[in-house]
Design goal:
The chain is of the alpha/beta class and 367 residues long. It has 2 domains: 191 residues, Glycogen Phosphorylase B (Rossmann fold, 3-Layer(aba) Sandwich); 164 residues, Glycogen Phosphorylase B (Rossmann fold, 3-Layer(aba) Sandwich). Helix content is 47%, strand content 15%. Strands 9-8-7-10-11-12 form a 6-stranded parallel sheet, with helices on both faces. The protein has a 4-stranded parallel sheet with strand order 3-4-5-6, with helices on both faces. A two-stranded parallel sheet has the order 1-2. Strand 10, helix 12 and strand 11 form a beta-alpha-beta unit. Helix 1 packs across helix 15, helix 2 packs across helix 6 and helix 5 packs antiparallel against helix 6.
Length: 367
Amino acid sequence: MLQSIIAISNFSEVDIIAPEGSILNNNRSNIKILYTYQWNNINIFKKIKNLIFYGRIRFLDFNDIKKTIEWGRYDFTFFEFPWNYLLMKEAKKRNIPVFCRFHNAESQILIEQVLRERKLGYFLMLLRCPIAEKKAISISDGLIFLKKEDELFYEYKYKYIKDKACVIPISIMNRKRMTVSNVNKTIIFPAQLGYGPNKEGMLWLLDSAWDRIAKMGFTLLVAGGNADSYLKDILERKPNIKAFYDPTENDIEILYGKASFLIAPIFWGSGMKVKVAESIARGIIPIGTPEAFSGYEIEDKVNCFVFRNAEELINIFEIIDKMNNNEIANLSKSAYDLFERKYNMNISIEKYRNFIYKIIEMREKYN
């Protein structure tokens, strides 16, 4: 969401409706917080109702939100996720251009979650998700996807999105870069540790490869929220691991500053992994699976390392262990150069501006 806010605020005034705590520290005069809401205030009965009728525990009460919106003020509306289709309909009724950004192939990842985690909540979400997707795609004048594969997934499914779709990958602001003097054998894994792909990937790493990697002198910094007692117990028993639970943004920034490598043992999921952009923006060398790098234009052994199994991962660390600081620094520079060419926020701003203006001009031409 922050990527969209930052990008759009560079060429337009922005009024934001969002959950509390999810909005950037705002010092821009053209960004206004119109309405915030708290997910934690939803009682159990409302959660059950939302899940059954809308497929989401967290589903907005649009009646309250609609009262705060002066629709005549807006040249276009922008929504994150297809689940907001009810509010999209309100904008469409008033002939205001509607844009929607898809973070994932939503129904695709829900199928995986149902098969892997077998939770009733995911099953109920899966029943309603195609409805939300279809409505959002039908209502929207413009659709933004993070990667080409997601656009093709929806094009195959719905057939009529090509002329109104655009791929804009994850982009972030500049970060503090790693320097040659800071090169070390420290690896970071920043993630929501309760989320299926992250938790499974971490357990896989600990079980399949970590003991041999630790013997080479590498240290792993694990930073994230929602870790269960089972994962915590294993992390505490493994060598050369420092775990930081529920870290603040400042804590995460400090931990990034201590690392030369990022590891992403992600074997399933959808969308683009922000942690990869966060690493290359700092010149931290990412080590991950093909799924972890999905959507990124990476080059193995040039600006990252790619592994598919435990032996490949161990072999990567054996190679790194033999590299000198200058060789690692060259890899770091290549990773940072990739960020500057493809995933810097300034590039994203131009793509947002060009796409939104193009869609609005097309509407005006044919209306």
